[in-house]
Amino acid sequence: MVEIMEYLKARYMDQKAQGIVEYALILAFVVVVAVAIASGGDLQTKVSSVFDAMSNSFSKKS
Asked: Exposed/middle/buried for 54, CB within 10 Å: 0-12, 13-18, 19+?
């Protein structure tokens, strides 16, 4: 019985830690993209051109 409890405890703790790491990686990615866009670098121009192209393609089909 003790072995089963230890197994379940270890499994639950591993999944919880994995979720925290995933959220931290997503947050770090969002921060990096936001800083890159806010700094006015080349990424801002590329992202803007992609959104403009998508907007133009949607407006042409309507």
From this structure: exposed
The whole-model pTM stands at 0.44
List C-alpha distances in Å: 35 to 26, 29, 30, 31.
14, 10, 9, 6
Q: Say if residue 50's pLDDT is above 80.
A: yes
Convert 21-42 to b/e letters by CB count within 10 Å (16 or more is b).
Answer: eeeeeeeeeeeeeeeeeeeeee
Q: Average pLDDT, stretch 1-18?
A: 71
